[in-house]
């Protein structure tokens, strides 16, 4: 990137830019040249059949998987092989996983405090204050001293969200945040994500929760076989899908 | 029953005490070496490099296959020559004591077992633990120290307790290289007083006592490492919220 300290419209620069991104596993192309731009503050929902490359796509954004070709730019930082660049990008990007990935030997509070203390140089007291504030945001301040195994699935996922928030990222990635949860816990987690969506953070969420997508998404993207097949605003996306593949997919999940 | 005078008995007991101290020093030093080496090797063997994997297989088959006594003798009698070959003139002047040879030999042999345990435990950790740490931009060194290894220790603890017990029982081998440890001192006392039964049983009791103390400690440690692993009693979501 050319440094532009006095850029006229910084908001015009996308939060995330993917250009012709390819990811291969052996001979298989999990991403077959994906182009995608996400505006600052935009809420994007990605859906698509199993194995279509949704997880691969968002995991390439914070370099949990390294892309083989194409260009990825996150908040103006071009993703390269340089470890420092990767760390810079991960500071900007919070991620929430399907299986929470909380650290089981640390309490909810300690899970939230670890990264800010290391990466943002906070004192123990500052990190604790920050962590409690974010646990409060996901309505779990009263569970802060519990270990993950003592929390319900929905509570664990909300702790994982708070943990990501403690890095105060400008971008949040969610990979099927509710698909490992019992049905009665899905609502509390989606509710928290909806509240976050109102805060102006940029968000990409892989999910098949269509009601959530309609309420929250500015734009929906449908992936199949490593490609983006169709995209559009939520209403049009669900009511008037253009491609046969999306119609077929919607028919299956709404059945 | 016995013609052992009190003064003699006190003398032998002092010697046994000194021997016990040496045994404990040998044990702790070699366990520490085995632990540190084993953890480092265990982590290193997870690298995808083929050279490292091949080197690990050779290391494991040597030290898991060759009797510890042979390794002790090899280092005690052959160590000076080896050091001379590696370090030249300077190495030739290093004298290897029975104690040093014992620590090196037991440490290296048991590092292979510790490495195997650590390696297995790491492979059993969900991949999500590494990914969670990486996504939070936690640097690799701290990820290992704060996130991965504490969980690995919990998983490997039963195996490590076994290694601990085996190593303790193997320490008397070093007396065959001339170390005046507890068993060597017992042998002298038993021979001189013609009271083998009393002295050997007493020494056996010392080992049993130490072993019992270790197990008690291991249990406490297990409770500590298990913090957070017990699942909550089943409650309805409404109660859990409260
Ligand atoms: N580590 C890996 N090694 C080999 N192949 C992989 C790996 N990870 C993913 N794949 C393959 O890449 C393709 C895309 O996988 P990905 O996980 O991105 O799909 P997904 O859309 O997230 O599916 P799901 O809805 O099941 O989570 C799949 O065909 C999968 O088998
Ligand atoms: Mg997936």
TrEMBL record, chain A:
InterPro entries noted in UniProt: AAA+_ATPase (IPR003593), ABC_ATPase_HisP-typ (IPR030679), ABC_transporter-like_ATP-bd (IPR003439), ABC_transporter-like_CS (IPR017871), MetN_ABC_transporter-like (IPR050086), P-loop_NTPase (IPR027417)
Keyword vocabulary terms for this entry: ATP-binding, Nucleotide-binding, Transport
Domain ABC transporter per the UniProt entry, residue ranges: 16-250
Keyword Oxidoreductase: no
Source species, domain of life: Bacteria
Signal peptide boundaries: none
Stretches that traverse the bilayer: none
Keyword ATP-binding: yes
Gene3D superfamilies to which the protein is assigned, alphabetical: P-loop containing nucleotide triphosphate hydrolases
Family, per entry: Belongs to the ABC transporter superfamily.
Name of the featured protein: ABC-type polar amino acid transport system ATPase subunit
UniProtKB/TrEMBL annotation, chain B:
Chief subcellular location: membrane
Keyword Membrane part of the UniProt annotation: yes
Name of a matching Pfam family: BPD_transp_1
SUPFAM superfamilies: MetI-like (SSF161098)
UniProt-listed Gene3D superfamilies: MetI-like
Annotated keywords: Cell inner membrane, Cell membrane, Membrane, Transmembrane, Transmembrane helix, Transport
Segments forming domain ABC transmembrane type-1: 20-218
Stretches that traverse the bilayer: 20-46, 58-76, 96-115, 136-157, 197-218
InterPro entries: AA_ABC_transptr_permease_3TM (IPR010065), ABC_transp_permease_HisMQ (IPR051613), MetI-like (IPR000515), MetI-like_sf (IPR035906)
Cellular localisation: Cell inner membrane; Cell membrane
Recorded topology in the membrane: Multi-pass membrane protein
Family according to the record: Belongs to the binding-protein-dependent transport system permease family. HisMQ subfamily.
NCBIfam families in UniProt: HEQRo_perm_3TM
Protein name as annotated: Polar amino acid transport system permease protein
Species this protein is from: Ancylobacter vacuolatus
